[in-house]
Amino acid sequence: MEQTFIMIKPDGVQRGLVGEIIGRFEKKGFSLKGLKLLNVDQAFAEKHYADLSSKPFFNGLVEYIVSGPVVAMVWEGKGVVATGRKIIGATNPAESAPGTIRGDFAIDIGRNVIHGSDAVESARKEIGLWFPEGVANWSSSLS
Ligand code: CMP
Fold first, then answer.
1. Is 48 tagged catalytic?
2. Where does the Nucleoside diphosphate kinase-like domain start and stop, copy by copy (predicted)?
3. From its phi and psi, is residue 134 left (phi > 0), alpha (psi between -120 and 50) or beta?
4. Which of 43, 87, 116, 122 sits in a 20 to 30 Å window from 80, CA-based?
């Protein structure tokens, strides 16, 4: 089953949006497979955003991600990578539609609350980076 990596960034955690964001993914029907609150250091943030290292905003982006705790999650379900990106909304909150997370809760591209993998392959890499210990197994759930 398809999985994606979702991170609530420091501004989302500090503003108390964790429950709201988790609720949106749960209510859509996706399954939570991994969840942790943690602080990452500069080297880790640089690794996560390695593809953006040549961008002029790279240093500011890394500084922002290390500025406070983040919530790292793995969500699973049919089409979760693309649908997750729709739930999140466009990268630039000025362009993200109302009803999306960024459309409802952000105004600044540099403080855009949440990250979601942009493709199945990047999800695989990001889950491996953030959850080297693996994720939960639902097979023993009551049903
Ligand atoms: P994210 O989905 O985490 O993927 C890359 C991040 O880079 C993006 O969200 C933004 O937080 C950040 N980003 C992209 N473009 C810009 C920009 N022009 N200025 C500042 N930050 C940016």
1. no
2. 1-137
3. left
4. 43
**Residue to substitute in 91, 95, 105, 113 for testing ligand 1 pocket (most ligand atoms within 8 angstroms of CB):** 91
ipTM: 0.94
Output the DSSP codes for 45-74.
Answer: HHHHTGGGTTSTTHHHHHHHHTTS-EEEEE
In DSSP terms, which residues pair with 115 in a beta bridge? 7
Q: How many structural domains are present in the chain? A: 1
Residue 86's nearest CA partner among 100, 71, 72 is 100
Q: Is 142 among the domain residues?
A: no
CATH number of the domain where residue 79 is located: 3.30.70.141
> What global pTM score does this model have?
0.95
